[in-house]
Amino acid sequence: MCSxxxxxxxxxxxYRGGRMQTRVYKDYxxxxxxxxxxxxxxxxxxxxxxxxxxxxxxxxxxxxxxxxAFVEGRVDFSDIQTFNLDEYIDxxxxxxxxxxxxxxxxxxxYVNVKKENIHFPPVDSGVDYESYDALIQEKxxxxxxxxxxxxxxxxxxxxxxxxxxxxxxxxxxxxxxREANKRxxxxxxxxxxxxxxxxxxxxxxQAKEVIVSAFGEKKAKAIYQMLRGEVTEDCPASVLQxxxxxxxxxxxxxxxxxxxxxxxxxxxxxxxxxxx
Length: 276
What we know:
- The protein has 7 helices and 11 strands.
- The chain has an 8-stranded mixed beta sheet with strand order 1-2-11-10-7-3-4-6. The chain has a 3-stranded antiparallel beta sheet with strand order 5-9-8, with no helix packed on it.
- The chain is α/β, with parallel strands linked by helices.
- It has a single domain, classed as 3-Layer(aba) Sandwich (Rossmann fold).
- Helix 1 (28-44) packs across helix 2.
- The chain is globular, with a radius of gyration of 18 Å.
- The longest helix has 17 residues, at 28-44.
């Protein structure tokens, strides 16, 4: 394992910089096992009540492992409030590629998160998007948010150029993001939505803890920019350098521009752990 950056003290946009702890694992499944073990440990210790969740392929196996732990009686989600990062706007709610459907398919239908405790950014016409931030604050704030990262450095659906102080809002998806997501729409770019509601960067930065995961060579440049590049709105993920508690989970390919002399594979077992 290797720690990449240390940022201490307050900075000009008001976030307290911390240390981005970076871990590299040999493969996707080992990384997901480490993430799920950590999250289950924190839930069982009562340290997580409000959980920010990502969709997409990055965390599918993590959700599967957490489901398995629930089936085995090793974790209880009944007191957990979940807050998803984003949802498409210009798509029928019955479409199988909505993020509501994704979360049911991969997680919610198999665990005991209460229906009334499942939250998504609002997508109805004329809605007050920042009501989502108000709800998060009403529930006590986010204890942990798990993020992926786009090839262009986006987090949630906050595309390059999104102001760091943005709350939950509507976003127009970039062509690179739509291109990356067309595999979920039969590779037909015209079927990929153009608009989404997303948790804002400032909302994410207010979370007590953030986990960012990336796997595969296609994410390597974005990871390099996030960890070692300038903090700039051109790479939304770079703002995480200013968060006090971020863990970055990678495989060897995603870390290729960070570590020039190979990597240290973490030894992971099936025990839940406070260490990721």
